Amino acid sequence: MLVVVAVVMALRSIPNSREASGRGFDAVGSLSSVVALVGLVFFLHEAPERGWTAPVTLLSLLVGVIAAAGFVAWELRRQAPLLDVRLFRERGLASGSVTAGPSGSPRGRLLGVNQ
Known about the structure:
The protein is an all-alpha fold. The chain has helices at 2-13, 27-50, 55-77, 91-104, 106-110. It is extended, with a radius of gyration of 20 Å.
């Protein structure tokens, strides 16, 4: 009963925040970013156990790198990109992103980056 009341109150009090945009959903960018992340995360997760030079780990690294390169190439050509990769030309954003990645990951904690 409480959930029903909360949903009704939310529908009545929260304004519609949808942005009217002529841009469509970037399916290619979304798919290539997911493939890149899955490939790279699989590589980092499985390599210590299966071996850094095992065929499956090297294949996942290759797939991740190719998908990431494809994502960057695709997004550079889009008029309304999912992620404007040109922003990483700024030194502060690029170095902050490179630093934040490993320090927030469990592997970074194991390496002592995030203490």
